[in-house]
Automatic annotation (TrEMBL):
It is found in: Cell envelope. GO terms for cellular component: cell envelope. Keywords: Coiled coil. Pfam families: Beta-barrel_YknX, BSH_RND. Residues 104-190 form the YknX-like beta-barrel domain. The keyword DNA damage does not apply. The lineage of its organism: Bacteria, Bacillati, Bacillota, Clostridia, Eubacteriales. This is Putative efflux system component YhbJ. The keyword Transferase does not apply. GO terms for biological process: transmembrane transport. It comes from the Bacteria.
Length: 194
């Protein structure tokens, strides 16, 4: 009984958490036929590295070159050599993420938010790595619940069921010596009292 009281007053925990990363789009600056795309999923690239080329005609010049917008790892490749690509449609040729900047997105019940502050220490376990412990800190808290961004129409019937909302909390790892995969599940335990 004392254990549960202590846990409840000193920590906020949830298993509604996933590893996340910022995915940056690779897009062309010109329109034309894709002549080459020299990277595949899993390849590492450095910022401004030439990774592909379009046949954009004589006026294409440097805009015919496709370069990596950041340093990181190619996590998705949507290209097909020979296809026509229009820069007006802003196509995503590939996605890149920085594997050193993976974080946890935890969905915290609205009733627990008043206990959480930026900088609080966090214990993290990742389903993929049973028994391995990670640590981190609260980096930021969402400014709206996840439902606020839903485009579903409002309920118009006479019955209303109140549902507890969740707000996303971003947690940064202190240090990582393991290859982490965005989208995998995690459990977080935020220390709210010392």
């Amino acid at each position: 009984m004392v254990y549960y009281w202590y846990e409840d007053t000193h920590y906020v925990s949830t298993d509604n958490a996933v590893l996340s990363a910022d995915f940056i789009k690779v897009t062309p600056f010109a329109s034309g036929k894709l002549l080459e795309f020299n990277v595949k999923e899993g390849d590492s690239v450095v910022k401004d590295q030439l990774i592909g080329r379009l046949d954009a005609g004589p006026s294409g010049g440097a805009a015919s070159n496709i370069r990596a917008p950041i340093s990181g790892t190619i996590v998705q490749n949507n290209t097909h050599i020979g296809e026509y690509i229009s820069s007006l449609q802003v196509p995503t040729l590939a996605l890149i993420m920085n594997p050193q900047q993976i974080y946890v997105t935890a969905n915290i019940d609205e009733t627990e938010l008043n206990k959480i502050k930026v900088g609080q220490p966090v214990n993290i376990t990742i389903d993929q790595f049973k028994g391995k412990k990670f640590t981190g800190k609260v980096k930021s808290m969402g400014q709206a619940s996840a439902d606020a961004f839903s485009f579903l129409p409002a309920q118009t019937s006479g019955t209303f069921t109140k549902v507890e909302k969740r707000v996303q909390v971003k947690i940064e790892f202190d240090s990582v010596d393991t290859k982490l995969l965005p989208g995998t599940n995690a459990i977080v335990k935020i220390q709210t009292k010392k």
